[in-house]
Amino acid sequence: MNRNITPTIEGGLLVAITVILGLVTVYVPLLGMIVDFFFAVPSAVLTARQGAGKGLSALFVSSILLSLLISPLFALRLCLSVGLCGVALGWSVRKNFNAVRIFFTTLVVASAAQVLSIALLSFVMDVNLIDMQLKMVRESFNESFKMYESMGVDKDRITEAQTNLDAGFKLLVFLIPTLLMLSALLNTAAVYLTSQWIFPKLRMKLPQMPPFAKWRFPSLFLYAAIFGGLGLYWGMTRSWTVIYEISLNVLILSLIIGLIQGFAVLIALANRFKLSTIFRVVMCVLLLLSPFMLQATAVLGLVDMIFDYRKRFSGDGR
Fold first, then answer.
1. Are 133 and 140 in contact (CB under 8 A)?
2. Residue 318's pLDDT is what?
3. Cα–Cα nearest to 300, from 266, 273, 269
4. Assigned fold of 7-125+178-202
5. Which of 86, 195, 204, 242 is most buried, most CB within 10 Å of its CB?
6. Which of 125, 28, 50 lies closest to 15 in space, CA to CA?
7. CA-based torsion, 95, 97, 101, 106: positive or negative
8. Each residue of 191-243: pLDDT tens digit?
């Protein structure tokens, strides 16, 4: 932006952009899905330029305007779960954090914002939003089963599908913390990637993440996976529901982190042996289509946290 623009005018412009993005998200279905990823960028820019206080104030004003123009509940969800990510990223940039620390700080804020937004919405609406969503999905499936039954589908097959669905819903309830974390991770990645594209256009710097082939996570996740596996066994054999739920979420999250590092190891090996792009794409597609190979890649990534295969085989991971 032009350096002659005063901070007040700049803040007003960025608030206006935030409100416009929110309106597009609601009223333009297809484009809105894309614009939603950019919603937090104005807050990130303003915070990086003028500080967290101005960023939070602008986000508060944006939420009021969106509440008047659309819906208070929508404004609350969007500004809390997405907008705060932009403030966190802008604050981290202003503090001159490196790329990894910026991403981690934004992820922590995004996770807290997810929990806070659900808690506030549940309090305002006086309902359990998670249970309500699950109930709606269950009713949708039940209607589908009724339709299949009216079409002459074998009742035994429908009953079996309903049994499997009930088991899946029970597992889904246990995995709600993991789903919230993945949602926060998606918001963080969206804010970081869109800001990485927008910041240079405004002559602002956003540190670059290390090459994917060099991504490594602390060995803590390996021990967390071991703890999760043991806790899962104890919870199942002794009917300790709380231990089972905690261990399941810890194990799933650890495996996801291991899967990311496992792919980084494979990409590093592909770089080492100079494999073609087509071969890499085919390799990744085959891995994604095979549950067993995905698990093996996750285990590879977890073990790599201790043994560091890239250092052993390629020296620098390139």
1. no
2. 47
3. 266
4. Arp2/3 complex 21 kDa subunit ARPC3 (1.10.1760)
5. 86
6. 50
7. positive
8. 999 999 999 998 899 999 999 999 999 999 999 999 999 999 898 888 888 89
